[in-house]
Known about the structure:
This protein is of the alpha/beta class and 1503 residues long. The protein has 58 helices and 35 strands.
Amino acid sequence: MLHIGPPGADxxxxxxxxxxxxxxxxxxxxxxxxxxxxxxxxPDVGNVxxxxxxxxxxxxxxxxxxxxxxxxxxxxxxxxxxxxxEQDPIPPPRAALNNDDVGDVSNPYTGALPxxxxxxxxxxNRIKVYLKPDYDFRRSEDYYTFASILQSAxxxxxxxxxxxxxxxxxxxxxxxxxxxxxxxxVLCHQNVSSEAAFDRNVLSFQRGYLPxxxxxxxxxxxxxxxxTNVKYMKRFKxxxxxxxxxxxxxxxxxxxxxxxxxxxxxxxxxxxDIVRLPVDSRKHTITQLKKSMKPLVxxxxxxxxxxxxxxxEPKGPARMDHAxxxxxxxxxxxxxxxxxxxxxxxxxxxxxxxxxxxxIRIVPPHSELVSTAHAYLPGNxxxxxxxxxxxxxxxxxxxxxxxxxxxxIAPIRTSVGAILDDLAKPPTEKTQLSELMKKSGGLxxxxxxxxxxxxxxxxxAKFGPMECDSRRGLTVELNFDAPAGDARHKTQAKRxxxxxxxxxxxxxxGGLVALIWKTDGGSARVYLGIISSSFKxxxxxxxxxxxxxxxxxxxFDAEVELRILRRLxxxxxxxxxxxxxxxxxxxxxxxxxxxxxxxxxxxxSFPFVDYLPLFDSGDLSQIKVAPPAYxxxxxxxxxxxxxxxxxxxxxxxxxANSVARARTIxxxxxxxxxxxxxxxxxxxxxxxxxxxxxxxxxxSYTGIEILRVLIANNIRPILLIAFTNHALDNIxxxxxxxxxxxxxxxxxxxxxxxxxxxxxxxxxxxxxxxxRQDRAQGRAYGAMKRAEExxxxxxxxxxxxxxRPAQFDIHLSTHYPLHHAELNSPPFWIREALDExxxxxxxxxxxxxxxxxxxxxxxxxxxxxxITYAGPGAAVVEGSSTPAGRGGRGGRxxxxxxxxxxxNSPNDAGTAPTxxxxxxxxxxxxxxxxLCGSRAIPPCPTTNRNINQLLxxxxxxxxxxxxxxxxxxxxxxxxxxxxxxxxxxxxxRLKERHREANVEWKEIxxxxxxxxxxxxxxxxxxxxxxxxxxxxxxxxxPRVLLVEEAGQVLEAHILASLVPSxxxxxxIGDPLQLRPTIENYQLSADNPGIxxxxxxxxxxxxxxxxxxxxxxxxxxxxxxxxxxxxxxxCTLYESLIDNDAVKRRPSIRGMAKDVFFLDHRHAEGGAGExxxxxxxxxxxxxxxxxxxxxxxxxxxSETGDxxxxxxxxxxxxxxxxxxxxxxxxxxxxxxxxxxxxxxxEEDVAGIFEGAVQQVKISSRVLLRxxxxxxxxxxxxxxxxxxxxxxxxxxxxxxxxxxxxxxxTNVALSxxxxxxxxxxxxxxxxxxxxWSGVIAELKRQDAIGPxxxxxxxxxxxxxTLINAPGQIALHSPTDSSADTFxxxxxxxTTRITDGRxxxxxxxxxVLAVTHAINSAPYLAENVNSLSLCNLRAVIPxxxxxxKWIDQKISVAMQSPRKPYRPAVIRLKSLARKIxxxxxxxxxxxxxxxxxxxxxxxxxPNAKP
Length: 1503
């Protein structure tokens, strides 16, 4: 009988001596008692030998203390010199409960029970007897001993390490072993009771069942990387249907409620150790246990609901305080709502339309791609109709999965639809497809308003070999026409340069492609796959082929792979067909891991279910956020590390007074500002913490200080996720610099920082000392290789049109029984010839070959070869391998009869014997005489009948070789066509076998990774890295998740990273800055229409904060001068405070205003409303003049001093082109990658010429789009807004995405000292955000039709500039121009690493050139210049030399004749430096023969 009674009852039974074990030996394996005595007389360990080693002991473990086989070793593990007590110590008594135990309750992986403390060695020795195939449990004590061994394997037993636990799990979970059987026998015991006492025929639930269940829930099982071995332990769903389990779960929930009430009541109805703890500790324990219980209850209830589910009546929208438009949209949704899959009226729309996301294939099949029905997309707002229960994690996961999948597949679906539409049109009609086919491919532009899609089309696709390997699985070689332009250039270098420039956007490894295959007169089929070729392989292909490119593709559908195999058959007639490849703009491999995780994650396993679901009310403001689960009532944080001076301070999250005191002291005395201190306390006391950091307020700094506190208080491991690799590297570097911890592991290998790169998991694994060879990995690898060989053999049979003899025999007997009978009844001599052909020991003693079947002998014409002489050493029939066919008599019969044998020299060993015609004829005549009684050799058939005649004549042995080939091909083809479904099933089976073997191999490899990660304090990764390693992270069990720039991370990405062990989530970001980037405008919150229902680019941080969940905010900014910060203070951040440091920012040299808006009426140009090619030529020219003017001031020559931000990519291209002849500009790689889709446009193409965007010199101007500059800053920012209706406001088409507050916020908050905006104030004022900005600019008198410039020495003289070209006329050229000279070169100046006084050598030349061209008063001092260890820090190019020539030419034409010699010397020096830098970046050069300049300006000098 199973019931809950006083826990002490059975505990007392456990303390009683075991009757079956009083002698000390009765309950042990038989051999243990023997070895126990032997160990008392072991020799000294210092001189280890096998003398005295007990019987049946492992020699390796005896001598070294280690064994490669671990738990798989069949011998006992006994170490030399160990005492009896060391080999078998008495388990220590269990201590009373304390606060640490209370903290452990919150650990979802804690499954240990008190009482069992065997070491791994002891467990190894004891478990062996139970794993014998013939073992049988006889008494209840046997069950208890077995259970206690399992119970010992847990991390709370400090003698066990992760490696021990994994090896023990492999032993117990081996499907071929008996461990699973023994566990099953325990769990299936017929007589189980919680009151078993000492009854040997009844199994105690507490002593037999609970230890096994505890092992199932221990970290060694739940966190195992070897999921193949523990799937049965984690499959709750199949068992959830059992009535007894359902009843048990409901009873457990009720019992927990009763027990919790009892232990917290004054009467204390239970005799339990927990009542000794304070009441708040007891309540905390109950709360955590209920949280652990809730997922199981939810799962049972959901399963019960599923079994009786009917389509729910749609509920009306919940009462919401949102705008009436949103309420109207919700009403429309309820009217038009149709559920997915089988719940829909009329049933599923296609084969991949399902109600459960677990049934949805991530990759859409053909039927879904060509379906014209709208995909089922649920609303992502509270109150939207849905087929799953409201306010549940199940519904949230369903929404996020479907929207993320739509973001992934919508582009390829649109692309396929456009191509199929063109294919359906008459051949004579001109289409975009037909035009691209004439050009052998190109960029297909599918314009659909704001959701326009551009994709690459590759024509004339042809198939190459199919391969199967462990790295990429099954792949197909595809070759097709290279894109037009440089990709087909005759010069190899040009082709390689093209692919290097587009390598991140074209044919990228992991990219999604679609093969469209249309036969003449048939319909087109669409097959999806991913690019498997590496970038290196792509470049190699470009080098070898001028007009073609070759890649390897891994298809998702076995049908197309089998179809390709058949197409590769030589006999396959070439049909007229069209095959081309289209490339999706979406990066499949960067999204797939998130979809797989969302699909596989059990909804009940998610933490923070009190906050994450979409609640019908849409209001979280009344929810009190609890402290982190690891913070039990007596837990406190030590905060002394937040003070620069020694200061003790602690914080108890459950104690309101302690929290208030910590807030006050941190605000007053710590190095944090007031709002940072508030955010710190909120983060430490809330299990879900949101921290908003407006621009410049120190989000990263606050995050690092939070990490410092958590690590100092031993809260680990911490999963640190950043939006970009750059941001992740910066955080890790700062953690290392501040010496917070060095136990950091970075997931992923795309780190640009050398120090951080050394912390990558891959690098660490390379240095791991692998002292033990993992035999399990070897077995798994062997299984994978065998699966590969089976797949290769199968593919060889298809391509080679070879049918297996058994299959051929069945096909022949079924369809041509007379032929089958004739084939299996050959003349007797043919049987003898076949037997002799099998005797390889005679002719080829070293050659091993499979015996031939009768069918193979007929196919190869072995009988024909036997009776045909083809000359000495020549094969009589192509493909024949019979010894007789090579002229030798061969065979046992010949040897036994003493026939003449050929004389083979030693050099001919292993080769076929030879003989002349007379000898051969005599041998054959003798053969037939002895066998048939006649010396006549049968004639060899030479007929050549057609296939119909052969099918009518069953005499198969009378056919010539040509006829046999013809008949065999016909029969094989018929067999293959008739067994296509069987082949497809076999092909899929082999693919699945290989996949499973590959998964098992990788899981075993993950064991080593887990050992490394288990020692990490911080595990850093991007969101992509976290999704790819979800299972590994689940095994590591991080306790804290900290996300940087959380406002830019999709909610789906964070949900996929929430492994069950997370107890504390901290999201740091700013929902008012850039949202996550998505490509589908229909799903965007910026879409004022249907986008308001989906809001897919709304981050989790934004959703929770907008729903009212408490969010801390940092309010002290340290970036922008007050005039700039006021623009976002008056519109978005009312409480933003300027730090005193920003109030002392210097004024911008050469400008009369530090902030100014140039309000102009010059209309925009370019393509459609939202085209990337939007440009404004006036702004381009004005920005060029402004940049050159600022550079001439001499104060803005360092990296990041001048930043030009563009609202549109097209404008970026125009500005870069305008500045190309004047200064070096840098285009960010993210902007360059986006421009790949537009490189066929004339202006865009220029950005890929040369390598200007990669030039790295001190004096450079950064060109960026607004969307790619969040998190960065510049001293002076010039902002080109582009949009402008000109002088006719009524003709305005709007301002596009400039309406976005988020983008505007980022654009206005990047500058530290100065900001200059170019745009149309009237157009912008229609936006709420811009209206406030323009009003503030007017208040500052910082807006107008002309930009005021002024010399910083004569600020009273202001010149207004309102047209391009004016600045050059008014730039200062008087004696104050000393600012144009950046440095002074003397005879002692040394250039080291290409730099002089902080400037690159090249920058020095440019600066001197500027000085000569602009300053009329130069004092010359000719000296020699020593260039030591000169290194080129830039790839100098033609543009640089051309620029210098241009400047020198201008100077040479100057009327200032005295300075011509200086210019000539400058040109000589410049040429020398350019030549040396280009020729050898590491040369040591002496230029003493070349006069140099020491440029100095006398401020008061006169002409």
